[in-house]
Design brief:
Number of strands: 6
Radius of gyration: 19 Å
Number of helices: 6
Helix content: 40-55%
Distance between the termini: 18 Å
Shape: elongated
Largest sheet: 4 strands, antiparallel
Strand content: 5-15%
Order of helices and strands: HEEHHHEEHEEH
Oligomer: single chain
């Protein structure tokens, strides 16, 4: 892998992670339950995975965009097209990974974008729903971090095809 490929790969990962981390400190949405509530990104990240326990199946699906994106990032880091690694135990070449990180990142982006079409969210463990009043900058940063990563992966895959060389 050339230095320019390493730099581009690192840039494709660092920028979306920075945007994602910044989204954690902003308000994500406003919803009306008993009163108007505006949770921050870190709150939803921490409790989103257990929403299924309160009856929030669809909310958990939306939250799953986070681990899917993490898996896409790890997969993108491991997709090395210019080298075949030799397994030290078996002394056999390890097959190259197919470029599938773009599909996982597209899935995470699609899930994140689909949330903007919702009208209600789970507001209480009893299964009560709260009407979404507005999406705030935290949501848009969260969603754009996935979109940036997806665009970066697609660009990288387009620029460095299967042979590992630049397409001119």
């Amino acid at each position: 892998m050339t230095t320019s490929q390493k730099f581009l790969r690192l840039t494709i990962i660092i920028i979306p992670i920075t945007v994602f981390c910044s989204s954690l400190f902003f308000k994500v949405l406003s919803y009306q339950y008993i009163q108007i509530e505006t949770p921050k990104g870190y709150e939803l990240l921490l409790i989103g995975g257990i929403a299924i326990l309160g009856g929030g199946m669809l909310e958990t699906v939306i939250w799953m965009a986070n681990p899917i994106a993490l898996f896409a990032i790890i997969r993108f880091l491991r997709e090395n097209r210019t080298q075949v690694k030799i397994d030290s135990v078996l002394n056999k070449p390890v097959p190259k990974l197919k470029r599938k990180s773009k599909w996982f990142s597209l899935l995470a982006t699609a899930i994140a974008i689909s949330f903007s079409r919702w009208n209600e969210v789970l507001a209480a463990e009893s299964g009560s729903k709260g009407k979404i009043l507005a999406f705030h900058i935290g949501y848009w940063l969260w969603m754009s971090s996935f979109a940036l990563f997806t665009m970066g992966v697609i660009f990288f895959n387009f620029r460095y095809r299967e042979t590992g060389t630049r397409m001119d």
